[in-house]
Specification:
homodimer, alpha/beta, Transcription Regulator spoIIAA, six-stranded mixed beta sheet, two-stranded antiparallel ribbon, 10 strands, 63% helix, elongated
Chain lengths: 584, 584
């Protein structure tokens, strides 16, 4: 029984905190959940629009996924739902299909959520979360900055009240938008500009004002974060009372069905899935990475811990839930999670409260949003994403290391030129090539004896004794296919350069692992050295490495007497005439 | 002057050995060159046929490239020319264009050689030879075995005297061939089978026989290797005298133009180049890898050395030469280089002799080859490639490490199912994922003090003293984007598990490099640990790493007193109450 309960609790971490849940927790969670809901409702609609979907899809994606993550996730304060970057990836994935009927777009969005859910769940069960390690900081940073700019630019058409055909690459859409600036609708522009100003100023003015007035804490927490809600209410009222859509052609959200769709699985269109494969992989990895990074940061602050595989399972199930209820891909977002944490959320109950409030909005309040101007939603998106543009990161990465800076810039530029998915793929390939180039030269040191001691140090840094005819090389890294050929080459070069050389001693103290390419290079090296009259010896081979070499037959091939426990022992047996090394 | 001569000699390594060239060298080189020519002429025609090209293209590719490599290469005994695996890649690249007119195929083949030449020359000048490190032994081995089988199967149609439409994937061609077995031409089959038997038996019978008879050395070296030439002569005579083409429909080579084509650049068809991009990259890398491995092995035996970048330059120029003279991509081949070396070649003059003899054959002897049966060429290919199938390597890699074995098998299967280029790409991706999965968990050891000494060892292996509230972790690997998140997570887990923890000491003695992802993780780690009331310290940071951390501002952010020269010093300052560690 106990074992089963533990196993169940490891799959449903909520069981853990529910057992000790107290009334004071409920109060804190309710307040935080409400504050997040106030932020989430307008953002969810805006992000759905960004993804090229009707606004209600954003609300659908903000109910079931939140509840499922709250039950299955290991972070107690992560806020799951529609986020900007994932919405952009969805938009880019759907753009491949050209002009879509609304019902087709809905079907494909749910299909994407389903596929992302399956991939994340699978990665979680296979414990393959390490795959996000492919995404280095410079690549993520370059991608995020570029994506934020692309997102902001994509909203300019709504701010201007124009419609721009989608290009293949973001820079085409941007130039397309710029070319149509003269056709701007002045009303849309005015409404959008006003919304932008309010969104920027409201939190900066209201927070100090409330503090000066000694307002209660919950009000101080709520009001500054309600800016998106305020502009939604104000914009809707203005559009309705002034009759802006009819009189000035202002684009509005229109009718939103006020029911949650009946659960249904999206149609499994295999050819569409094939076309969406890159998008699915990009959303699965980028979504998990963003979510995991936030969850990790928040958990550490309270000395809680996060399990990567269980996070993948939880996000996967959340996406399956989104697919089932007509939503689109979701993940844990940075800004809303920070708000949730900052507002005092203690457990997943906060997210369940948020989901309940979104459901309430959907059922009861959507008719009120009929007149919500699209320009207001565009302004909400722009203000939400612009802080993600981090040019300082580029300067910083470049000054720290040219290779890292280049990876960031390559990714940034590639996103604009090639598109969001290809951009991130090129960034990943570039950073892998840079890494491989770096790790292809393993760190080696030719060593000699320090005085008469048992210590051996780099001949280039210390005055040490070497032996004539003996070359002792300390290898400071594990041997794998990426670096072993370079080792081989450097040994061969030294052998070719020194005709007196009779023995090569490899000091393996830094080798934690030798893969089969490494093994075969060692074997080949031993054979070709032997043909050239040079003996290969090894010292300080670690236990697990020795076991493998033994099993492979290499130990017998080379001869057991060619393996030495310590460098000291090897020098004693091999070195004949010690001579003072020339310090280079 | 001296400087210029050295610089010239580093670009034209031949100048180096030409200065000391002696008459005895010439005798040795001439014999070796002639032996290689005897092997090369039939192989070159056969491999051109394998690539889907007329046989003379193989001869064109066996003249200029040999001379150019002899002048520019750093290996003195490498034999450059058409090889089986590259020919297969050419065939697979050309197959994308469907049925081609002979002149179109010639143009595309020369274009491929041009592009491969440019890529290899560029990689050489940029010193990007490390890119071949992407190809691990298991991937190369799986690829080579599968390619050899695909090549052998592709020749079955010529042995059977039938013609099979090319499928997209090798397995489709294979099943296509098997389905047409009943249509076999008995004469072709008989000629092919006889050629196979002769090719296998001739070297095995003639070598001991010549040795017993005390034949001169050069005859003992020449005759067993002339098997392909013998079957060409016998097959041609049989086809001519018995009138097999006319009477039994035996497919023959037919007319070969007996002039070297005038040098001309292939047409630069950009859309064709785009379609051939994968093929170009695969040939450039696989070709260089094969060539470099052979050159390295041969050079070490004579204590000569090889320069990877210059090798790329030399191969690149050899391919440009091939393109200019109507050839197709070439590289240094394993078996002919071994023959060249074994026959006593001392310098590139041997290859120049080979090229002269191929040119002579082309000009004077091709009319004699009109009746050469294609089934004989097919037999030559099959006997040449079957030894490349190395099933023992799969068993060996699997028993050494499951991951390496899986990489080999994945590549092998993928070549049959997806095709040769996609097969090798999938293998590379698979081995990178495996490597990343392995390196994503950096090797860490929690350490404590050995007795009262200044030595610190792993708490899991030694009885050592630790300090309450202090966690000391030795990091045995460089920190980069692939492994740093795992480090962060393991630290956070330990902090979450031990509420008494107040200090974390990272011992950086094994860290040779920290990339910007590593730096940012360290910074984030320091900040989140501080919020949780834990201080981060570092000890034994290497000089170059410290310089970078200093420049980045991390040293000031953390506080200079958080960096310690030695673990001993850090323990002295940080550790309060030492307690006996529990040995796990």
């Amino acid at each position: 029984m106990g074992g089963m309960r533990t196993r169940l609790a490891s799959f449903v971490p909520a069981l853990d905190w529910l057992r000790t849940y107290r009334r004071s927790d409920l109060a804190a969670d309710t307040l935080a959940g409400a504050i997040v809901a106030v932020l989430l409702v307008p953002q969810a609609m805006a992000y759905a629009m960004l993804a090229g979907l009707p606004p209600e899809v954003g609300l659908y994606a903000s109910i079931a996924p939140l509840v499922l993550y709250a039950l299955l996730g290991t972070s107690r304060t992560l806020s799951v739902g529609p986020v900007a970057v994932v919405s952009l990836l969805v938009a880019s994935g759907l753009a491949q299909f050209g002009a879509l009927e609304p019902s087709e777009a809905l079907g494909l969005a749910a299909l994407l959520a389903l596929a992302v859910g399956v991939v994340q769940l699978g990665m979680g069960l296979l414990r393959a979360g390490f795959l996000v390690n492919f995404l280095s900081h410079p690549v993520v940073s370059g991608f995020t900055s570029a994506a934020a700019l692309v997102i902001a630019f994509s909203q300019v058409e709504h701010l201007l009240g124009i419609s721009v055909p989608r290009g293949h690459a973001p820079w085409e859409s941007i130039t397309g938008t710029l070319a149509r600036v003269p056709d701007a609708n002045p009303t849309a522009l005015a409404v959008g500009a006003l919304a932008l100003v309010l969104l920027v100023l409201h939190p900066r003015l209201s927070a100090p004002w409330l503090e000066r007035r000694g307002a209660p804490d919950w009000l101080q927490a709520l009001v500054p974060r309600a800016a998106p809600l305020f502009v939604v209410v104000l914009g809707t009222l203005a559009a309705f009372t002034l009759g802006l859509p009819e009189r000035a052609g202002l684009a509005i959200v229109g009718a939103i069905p006020s029911v949650l769709p009946r659960p249904s699985l999206p149609t499994l269109d295999m050819s569409a899935l094939k076309q969406l494969a890159t998008t699915v992989m990009a959303i699965s990895l980028v979504g998990f990475l963003e979510s995991y990074a936030v969850a990790q940061t928040l958990a550490t602050r309270r000395r809680e811990s996060i399990d990567g595989s269980q996070e993948l399972v939880a996000l996967g199930v959340a996406n399956l839930g989104s697919a089932l209820f007509g939503g689109y891909p979701v993940t844990g977002g940075f800004s809303r999670s920070m708000v949730n944490f900052g507002a005092g959320a203690r457990t997943g109950v906060a997210s369940i409260v948020t989901a309940a409030l979104v459901l309430l909005t959907l059922i009861a309040l959507t008719p009120l949003l009929f007149y919500l101007p699209r320009a207001v939603l565009a302004a909400i998106i722009i203000v939400a994403v612009l802080p993600l543009v981090d040019l300082a990161a580029a300067r910083r990465a470049w000054s720290y290391s040219r290779a890292d800076g280049a990876a960031l810039i390559v990714t940034f530029v590639a996103v604009f030129v090639l598109g969001v998915e290809l951009g991130i793929i090129l960034g990943v390939v570039f950073s892998l090539v840079v890494y491989l180039s770096r790790s292809s030269r393993p760190h080696l040191a030719v060593v000699g004896r320090v005085g008469d001691s048992e210590h051996f140090r780099n001949v280039e840094r210390h005055a040490v004794q070497t032996s004539d005819g003996l070359l002792a090389i300390r290898i400071d890294e594990s041997l794998y296919f990426g670096n072993v050929r370079n080792l081989e080459q450097r040994i061969h070069e030294r052998v070719a350069a020194d005709p007196k050389l009779r023995q090569v001693l490899l000091i393996a103290s830094g080798i934690n692992f030798v893969d089969v390419t490494g093994l075969e290079c060692l074997e080949l090296c031993a054979t070709t050295l032997a043909r050239a009259g040079v003996d290969l010896h090894l010292a300080e081979v670690k236990g697990p490495v020795m076991d493998r070499l033994e099993r492979s037959g290499f130990v017998d091939q080379l001869g057991r007497d060619h393996f030495h426990l310590s460098t000291h022992e090897a020098f004693g047996k091999l070195g004949a005439q010690p001579e003072q090394a020339v310090v280079e």
